[in-house]
């Protein structure tokens, strides 16, 4: 049996196993995401933290307590948000690079408090952080 000729006769179109996502596709996935990972830098080392996120008006928001995550982004505002999902025969992975800012203005804090942002862990997270995206990259994968 000639495998090559068998595949050539197949009428089903072949999908590439890896495709690049456009920025609008990345943002559409971000809008459906509530759990992600935050990448910051701590003393020259990359620090990855899981967190809950919400998108609003082209920005990403999360709540946090005082600690290394907050300290890292205050010292270096450049951050990365990463999220991914594998389901059935496909998966995707998205990285959103941007600038983080601790919200301090009372009107901004009031607006952020209205966002549907509920922490998974019942610890006090009194600080709101806003990330303004600068670049988005993503890939979709056909598994198997």
From TrEMBL:
Pfam families: Pyridox_ox_2. Residues 1-17 have a biased composition (Polar residues). Residues 1-21 are annotated as: Disordered. This is Pyridoxamine 5'-phosphate oxidase family protein.
